[in-house]
Amino acid sequence: AQTVTQSQPEMSVQEAETVTLSCTYDTSESNYYLFWYKQPPSRQMILVIRQEAYKQQNATENRFSVNFQKAAKSFSLKISDSQLGDTAMYFCAFMKLYNDMRFGAGTRLTVKP
Amino acid sequence: DADVTQTPRNRITKTGKRIMLECSQTKGHDRMYWYRQDPGLGLRLIYYSFDVKDINKGEISDGYSVSRQAQAKFSLSLESAIPNQTALYFCATGRDTQYFGPGTRLTVL
After folding, report:
1. DSSP labels for B53-69?
2. What is the CA radius of gyration of chain B?
3. Helices (H) and strands (E) in chain B, counts
């Protein structure tokens, strides 16, 4: 079974600085997807970024980027120029092709002014 | 309008009551999912459906049942609610990416 581990329950960062959230996963699959979701206090699950395992290039969405290390089964999220609105729970998730998702326990990120 | 809607958004009920949570999506996806979120545990899969005639149990299906009334509608039922089913429930839809509804906060007293 696939498992997803987020080893940082809580993190904080000063506004405008950069922070990296860690995620590791365990799978025997070769093709899969990885995701980062953001959950603000409104509790909505918002897709931040998506990575396809067969693509070596790291995904980027504006201030958000990932460091995908397939051999190490590592998928970290870097947030640049942190903003107060980035304060939220962040969940790493793994999905086999066209299947259900497995989530990590989450990292609570606080951006301080 | 939101692509994935859930009703109700909040519900308080008593032990032993039957509860139905409803989900509708306008994204045209064939696949729909129900997840439960508990503090410190992330989201866990309850049931999923790959089309109207295909229903599958997830990681934590005991105490729950589902109905896929149409491609766009997927309902979750708690036949006899118990306090440890107090949680945040999410519906999701999608094939290679999952899009989530706003969630239903359920409290069982």
Report:
1. TEEEE-TT-TTEEEEEE
2. 13
3. 0, 11
- Candidates B41, B43, B51, B54: best to mutate against A (most CBs of A within 10 A) is B43
Rounded to a whole number of angstroms, the distance from the CA of B3 to the nearest CA of chain A is 13
Quick check: B45 and A33 CB within 8 A? no
Length of chain B: 109
Q: Return the residue of A nearest to B5 by Cα.
A: A44
- In contact, A94 and B42? CB cutoff 8 Å: no
- Name the band, by pLDDT with cuts 50, 70 and 90, for residue A90: very high
Q: Note whether B108 and B21 are within 8 A (CB).
A: no
A43/B105 touch (CB, cutoff 8 Å), yes or no: yes
- Is A43's CB within 8 Å of B33's CB? no
For A5-36, the pLDDT digits (tens) are 999 999 999 999 999 999 999 999 889 999 99
User: What DSSP letter does each residue of A61-95 carry, written as one string?
Assistant: ETTEEEEEETTTTEEEEEE-S--GGG-EEEEEEEE
pLDDT for B95 equals: 86
Percentage of residues in chain B with pLDDT exceeding 90? 88
With a cut of 50, which residues of chain B have pLDDT below it? none
Bridge partners (DSSP) of residue A19 are: A79
